[in-house]
Inverse folding.
């Protein structure tokens, strides 16, 4: 009877550890997803001013909020990545999410610089 109880306790402990580990992973994924969504919403409020050199982000409050939210999202993604081994789909998804945040920001900036370049070309043609 004692060996059966010992085996049952071992099985329950292993199942508890597995459940806790999976819950921790899922919470980390959910947090990373939520943080990335909030960062994208913050970026939507940011505009890049093509009339000024270097296309600064405006309004400054929205730009600071975007930077803070992006940092939060990157941190949440790094924390979640630590829970997944290399080569897993979840880790690849988290890496792609961080890259997407950066690409969207760079895309908006490049669009601004393109408009700025076109306006400077037009100004040069008028002269």
């Amino acid at each position: 009877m004692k060996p059966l109880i010992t085996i049952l306790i071992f099985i329950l402990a292993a199942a508890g550890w597995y459940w806790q580990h999976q819950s921790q992973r899922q919470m980390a994924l959910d947090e990373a997803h939520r943080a990335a969504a909030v960062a994208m919403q913050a970026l939507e409020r940011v505009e890049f001013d093509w009339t000024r050199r270097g296309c600064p982000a405006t309004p400054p409050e929205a730009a600071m909020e975007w930077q803070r939210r992006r940092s939060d999202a990157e941190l949440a993604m790094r924390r979640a990545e630590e829970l997944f081994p290399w080569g897993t789909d979840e880790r690849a998804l988290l890496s792609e999410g961080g890259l997407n945040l950066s690409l969207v920001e760079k895309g908006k900036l490049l669009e601004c610089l393109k408009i700025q370049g076109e306006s400077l070309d037009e100004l040069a043609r008028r002269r």
